[in-house]
Amino acid sequence: MSVFPTSEKGARYGLRPVTDTFGSLPIAAAAPTMPAMRYLITMLAALLGLAAPALAQQDWPELDRSAEVAFFGITYLDDSIQTEMQGADPAEAARIGMLEELVADRFAEEGWTLADTAPVQDQIDRVVNPAKCYGCDTRAAADLGAGYSLVGEVQKVSNLILSMNLQMRDAETGDMVRGRVVDIRSNTDESWQRGMNYILDNTFFEEEGE
């Protein structure tokens, strides 16, 4: 199974496979521009970081539904020329909060208990990105007595190119037990929601028969 949405399911969420993205952005023509180079780097990093677990999605371990999940939020990574030239967009910070609420609500709706992360918040605040902190997320989750840590990222390369991921790890072993990355086209509330809903629907809470 591809780490990027390549089936009809992806089309339902308004997502495009990475091959389509490269097709719509000729590398030779875009090579001199920084956004294109950053996009290529982002996609390569995503493939190296999350492709293997996603490709073996049918082999995800069974989860302990009685265990709590420590959700440490979603980190926003902005490498765009627009932000360098025009400054941060408050709407994007608001969208991170929107996604965090969407994820937390969905886990609660699916019957999971989210741990109170306040006792370890100082540990999390000391790192730039809990999704890439050499296991600080799972250690913090273990300190809370939670069974799993949950972290995510949204990376903006331009207003037309963004990627997002969500990763769930076993607090004891540090192993990823669920995870997926998608790229989205356009920078709107709707496109961000579609991207995260795709991850949740097709990796974390995939219906039988899907």
Give a written overview of the molecule.
This protein has 210 residues and is of the alpha/beta class. It has a single domain, classed as 3-Layer(aba) Sandwich (Rossmann fold). It is 45% helix and 19% strand. The protein has nine helices and five strands; from the N terminus they run H-H-H-H-E-H-H-E-H-H-E-E-E-H. The chain has a five-stranded mixed sheet, with helices on both faces. Strand 4 and strand 5 (176-184) form a beta hairpin. Helix 6 packs parallel to helix 9. The chain is globular and about 45 Å long. It starts with 7 loop residues before the first helix and ends in a 6-residue tail after the last helix. The model is unreliable at 17-36 and 46-57 (pLDDT under 50).
In short:
This protein is 45% helix and 19% strand. With 210 residues, the chain is of the alpha/beta class. It has a single domain, classed as Rossmann fold (3-Layer(aba) Sandwich).
Provide tags for this entry:
Rossmann fold, 5-stranded mixed beta sheet, 19% strand, globular, DUF2380 domain-containing protein, DUF3280
